[in-house]
Amino acid sequence: MKLSLSTLGCPGWSWNEIFATAKDLGMNGIEVRGVANEMFAPAIPVFNQGKRMETMERIEKSGMQLSMLTSGACLGGPDPEKYMQEAKAYIDFAQIVKSPYVRVMVSSVP
After folding, report:
1. Tens digit of each residue's pLDDT (9 = 90 or more) over 40-80
2. What is the CATH number for 48?
3. What is the pTM of this model?
């Protein structure tokens, strides 16, 4: 079984804290929801064009991967077009960072 650290439980942590914790715990990946209080993954600074290659190389060298991008998109929410745009942005971003999965919600009711 492969295990990943989810940033849902630590959205205020820096990328270095997240990465070091995942590595120290022997995780296989990191599920990205929020980093340093940025909850829109495509806007997280360590993934911007200037830092993305370095970040991805660090992840790959560690043997981990970005196992999933966890969006806030709720397709059954009050503004489906807004959430569809968010989902599309995450799908495009997932291709760039080689993350195999993107989470979207169908309903705001758990």
Report:
1. 999 999 999 899 999 999 999 999 999 999 999 998 888 98
2. 3.20.20.150
3. 0.91
The tokens of 72 are what?
């806030």
> Structurally, how many domains does the chain consist of?
1
Residue-wise burial string across 6-35, b where 16 or more C-beta atoms lie within 10 A, e elsewhere: bbeeebebebeebbeebbeeebebbbbbbb
C-alpha atoms less than 13 angstroms from C-alpha of 9 in its C-beta half-sphere: 8
Q: Are strands 102-105 and 29-32 parallel, antiparallel or unpaired?
A: unpaired
- Run of H or E including 62: helix 52-62
Residue type (1 letter), 17: E
